[in-house]
Amino acid sequence: MNRIILSSEMEKLSSKTFKNEFVNAFDGDREDNMRPRQTPGFLYARAVPTPVKKPVLLAWSEELAAQLGIQDPDSEDVNIIGGNTISASMFPYAACYAGHQFGNWAGQLGDGRAITLGEWEVTAELSYEFQLKGAGPTPYSRRGDGRAVLRSSIREYLMSEAMFYLGVPTTRALSLVGTGDQVMRDMFYDGRAAYEPGAIVMRVAPSFLRFGNFEMLAARQELENLQKLTDWTINKFFPEIKGENRIIPWFKTIVAQTAALMTSWIRVGFVHGVMNTDNMSILGLTIDYGPFSFLDAYDPDFTPNTTDLPGRRYAFGRQHTIAYWNLGCLASALAPLLDNTDELVAALEDYRDIYYAKYYAMMADKIGLDQLREEDKPLIDLFEQTLTTVQPDMTIFYQLLIDLPLDLDNEVALNTYFKPALYAALNTEQSTALYQLMITYLQRIKNNTSSAENRLERMRANNPRFILRNYLLHQAIEGMEKGDDTLFEALKTAMRTPYSREHDQFFTLRPEWASEQPGSSTLSCSS
Ligand code: AMP
Ligand code: MG
């Protein structure tokens, strides 16, 4: 996506000829009604956006638009990104997929409130699926209304863009439109439903295909469709995989991409919150932003999702294991296409080694080791253990680590140095743990063979200084609901350079008031 597109080449959203390769490649349910239904035999169902009262453009991603070659939107374009009209070349549809939710088979799910309008071609090899989220019911809406509220749309819009600038693979967001309609939601799942402003995000990705698209076809024993979807996906998104038996090398690539995604999430302290198999991208992207959060205090058991609280299945420290479980579901779905599954099982079992290789390499960069040696692994494990014991603010801790004076070698001084990252004073056990970690670390750092500047550069490039904390999002949402976009705009600016020191007005601990407040620490799936 690095091609520079001249402004004279920019195209207008509503005049562009969209491609519909997915729709043309597969059978779909083309009945023009939104009656909730099962769609066996089909990979999608036609779903036209339901018009809204008064679409108002609230945000537009200039940089993404420039990369895709899209002109600034006029009122005609806003009608499209607000779900009020479609252009002649678009074939709007909802994809049919299934999934495992919280470990249980859920059967057909499908895009209940996402509608793909078409594929925007950048070059012959590169196109992007344009998908509205919140544009009204589809045949997969079940009992839902197909809508999204402003609160959750702001979260997805800002966070997916923030993840992009952090260097984490992700779907992106082109626009945020207020619909002028009110949407009823029971935000706390406690019977106090209330109206909230509605909104629509235009999401963009090469593909929104999920593990669940493949699981659906396998569960229905539609092996011809399954083979066809697999071939199509490999041809289009993994063209480097060639030859007779492509499924194994393809699955290996997905294993590696998914392991890389987990490593990225851990690097920046991201918790997805709903790692169901229908929320796992076949391209290894972060997808479907719901009750996510960054870690404030370092706690591997932290889950932001109130629905996940009893089991903490999707807690921060479990995400890499859940990814493996989810890959197992994908492998099961692909198994019927193979005569012998030994290689598939072996590829799945390689996940652990692949993940840990990536994880240790990432941690070595994060803590500034010149190279990863086998004997460094216990040190990295000690970081993980000590952070869990001390529970400092993850982001601030690593920022302080960058600037750590190398002669700081006594317990009291170290304790004082890391104080800005602490939510509570350290007890003796915590203080000793931190001291022992730092003594071991400082010794190791002094053995670096590369320059100090090289170490600092690597640490600065791998440790974000600005993260979109949930309480900031919460405050930005409160502002936007009152028509004040000051904080929203400030966050939108800051998130574009998250590794710089330019946004230190946000470089503080999560305030005390936010620690228990719903929306600032925990979230429901109601969105
Ligand atoms: P999620 O937990 O957001 O990944 O959603 C799980 C499933 O519920 C997907 O099939 C969604 O399309 C569907 N869904 C979520 N919210 C709504 C809604 N408001 N209306 C219709 N379908 C929804
Ligand atoms: Mg989902």
Task: Pick out its properties.
12 strands; two-stranded antiparallel sheet; binds magnesium ion; single chain; binds adenosine monophosphate; 527 residues; 3 domains; alpha+beta
Overview of the structural elements:
There is one protein chain. The protein has 527 residues and is α+β, with helices and mostly antiparallel strands. It folds into 3 domains: 7-208, no CATH class; 212-364; 470-515, no CATH class. The chain contains 17 helices and 12 strands. The strands form 4 sheets. Strands 2, 6, 7, 8, 9 and 10 form a 6-stranded antiparallel β-sheet that branches. The protein has a two-stranded antiparallel sheet with strand order 1-3. Adenosine monophosphate (AMP) binds next to loops. Adenosine monophosphate binds next to loops.
How do the strands and helices of this protein lay out in sequence?
Elements: H1 21-25, E1 44-46, E2 56-60, H2 62-68, H3 75-81, E3 93-95, E4 98-101, E5 104-108, E6 114-123, E7 126-133, E8 148-149, H4 150-166, E9 172-185, E10 194-205, H5 211-219, H6 223-237, H7 247-268, E11 270-271, E12 293-294, H8 319-334, H9 342-349, H10 351-366, H11 377-390, H12 394-402, H13 411-417, H14 428-446, H15 452-462, H16 470-481, H17 486-494
Antiparallel strand pairs: 1-3, 2-9, 4-5, 6-7, 7-10, 8-10, 9-10, 11-12
Helix pairs in contact: 4-16, 5-8, 7-8, 7-9, 7-10, 11-14, 13-14, 16-17
The structure holds adenosine monophosphate and magnesium ion.
